[in-house]
Amino acid sequence: MRISFPYPFVAPRLADGLRRTRAYAAMTGDETQRGRCTFYEALNERIKNERKVISMTIQDVVEGFRDVATASVADAVDKIAGKRGYMSHDIKPRINEKKVVGPAVTVLEGPTTESLPPRHALDLIDEAAAGSVFVIGINGEHDVAVWGGLMTAGAVANGHAGAVLDGGVRDLTEIRRDYDFPVYARSVSPGTTIGRFKTLAANVPVICGGIEVSPGDIIVADIDGVVVVPRAQAEQVLKMAQEIDARELEQARLIMECKSLRQGLAKYGRI
Question: What percent of the chain shows pLDDT beyond 90?
């Protein structure tokens, strides 16, 4: 069972206990007291580490991913998650080249002959937390639009970060002119889903661009492509992506200074 410690309350008492025990152990040479010192030190380290984990909120994670290269995120997901996290190349920015980072909210669509509005998507636009990224799975259907001008208006009104679509988007002129809202989509199509597809569920795992996306996964998207970071490993992926960025910056400087790509590659072993 995982125990959470209220660090601000526990830390002063723990530090005082450690101080007293160290003093007594030094004065008496009592091995039992030395053992207690080791225990207190280990406990203090555990509490500090847990505090660091607790302090990294979803906002911290999102802000961190804004500042790292999307390619570095893709490389870090490869290593940490042990699987590909970047979507197919045809999921492209269709409105602008703004970077999108945020937790995924998902909608699943499937075929129908009924004339139904995309109810799950419409409800989720109003209900999801601000800063969400909408990810819609429709089995790679590129000849209908699962997103348009009115949905964009709702997303902007509610402070959402962007949309990533396994299908098409329409109303590009309107979205560019009135909202400048970032949409990454498989295609552009004027066709409606009504009478062809319906929403089946919200906030369930979906496939988009060949990658499974679960609610809460972190989406990182820019002109390089779209990467899905598993939520459970987001902090680890962020740390590794930051390290990759730092190494590449040093490597690029070395290449420029010594005027040799070969030398830069030899020192850092990365391409």
Answer: 70
